[in-house]
Amino acid sequence: MRRLSRISDQQEETVVQLDVNIGYWGVAVGRDPALAREAEKLGYRCIWTAEAYGSDAATVLAAIAAQTTTLGIGAGILQMPARTPAMTAMTAATLDDLSGGRFRLGLGLSGPQVVEGWHGVPYGKPLTRTREYVEIVRRILEREERVSFEGSEYQIPYVGEGATGLGKPLKLIGVPHPDLPVYIASIGPKNVRLTAEIADGWLPVFYSPERAPEVFGPWIDEGRAKSSRAHFDVVPTVQASVGDDIGHARDHVRPMIALYVGGMGARGRNFYHDLACRYGYEEAANRIQDLYLAGRKEEATAAVPDALVDEVSLIGPREAIRDRLEVWRESRATALAVASLDVHTLRTIAELAL
């Protein structure tokens, strides 16, 4: 089977690797191959899609893989609570086989609202669950032996309450996939540290090229010091829009920041709010959260500062995008996942970056 290079060293400073992130709207791209094929033609490395409580990511990626030949396909992310580690490993191996070795496996735990409110399973211990999950998935993909695992979150074979006692260790049917890269979406200090230790790559959001290296750098360095993996791919998702009306572009990005900073987690348990505070926007972050949790979402959106929008996005006219890319080249990002369904935006950024 032909296998494409998926994890590489940082390219020269004059080049920024580009991915494209189609978010939760993957069905539209899977149905119409034009955007994915254009991204492939422009030299984008990989296309990522996510899942929450709408379309699943795996089906969309299979459709995109069938319509492209060299473009990587990335799950950004598959939700760990939605699948057993074995089911995720099977899905990953299948997508990798179907795409000729183009698949990247991105994993995320999501938050208690989705884990318990949608999937109906306990949130558990996030760090322990992530470590055990990744280890099981890797053991299955390596296919060196029948898989047994005894952890605090996962047991294979299961021997707990209600077990029949008939379970037995099994091995993945088919070829091994030992080099299939595993990415983790994380944002809090302990989670980022763990990501740098056990994963091949990291999928952050709201990554400020000016501030993130200082904020995240120590956590990444601590994790990498414990890692045995050769490469670590840092792929921030960056909301992007090319156009002369900077105000319109900002207003396009603002609602997502408001949602995450204000409503993606309870008060005191919102890592995105905490991140905005670490970036120096504590007063604005508190106001956004207060308004959002009070149900005043439009006011919360209006309270998102222009400066924060500009830091974590690639928006504005061509010249502004070019200047911001220079800043991104000096960050610790190894690739940018450009979040846009606009072909003009994707083409402009590719012309400036590649």
Q: End-to-end span in angstroms?
A: 28 Å
Secondary-structure element pattern, one letter each = EHHEHEHEHHEEEHEHEEHHHHHEHEH
> What strand order characterises the main sheet?
9-8-7-4-3-2-1-12-10-11
The overall strand count is: 12
Radius of gyration: 20 Å
Mean pLDDT: 94
Largest sheet: 10 strands, parallel
Principal-axis shape equals: globular
Task: Note the beta-strand portion.
Answer: 5-15%
Q: Please give the count of helices.
A: 15
Question: Would you identify the regions where 5 or more consecutive residues have pLDDT less than 50?
Answer: 9-15
Percent helix among the residues?
40-55%
Structural class: alpha/beta
What does this structure look like?
This protein has helices spanning about 25-30, 35-40, 55-65, 85-100, 110-115, 125-140, 190-200, 210-225, 245-265, 270-280, 280-295, 295-300, 305-310, 320-330, 345-354, and strands at about 15-20, 45-50, 70-80, 105-110, 150, 155, 180-185, 200, 235, 235-240, 315, 335-340. Helix 2 packs parallel to helix 15, helix 7 (about 190-200) packs across helix 8 and helix 14 (about 320-330) crosses helix 15 (about 345-354). The strands form 2 sheets. The protein has a 10-stranded parallel sheet, sandwiched between helices. The chain has a two-stranded antiparallel ribbon with strand order 5-6. The radius of gyration is 20 Å and the shape is globular. With about 350 residues, the protein is an alpha/beta fold. It has 15 helices and 12 strands. Strand 2, helix 3 and strand 3 form a beta-alpha-beta unit. Helices cover about 45% and strands about 15% of the residues. Mean pLDDT is about 95; it is low at about 10-15.
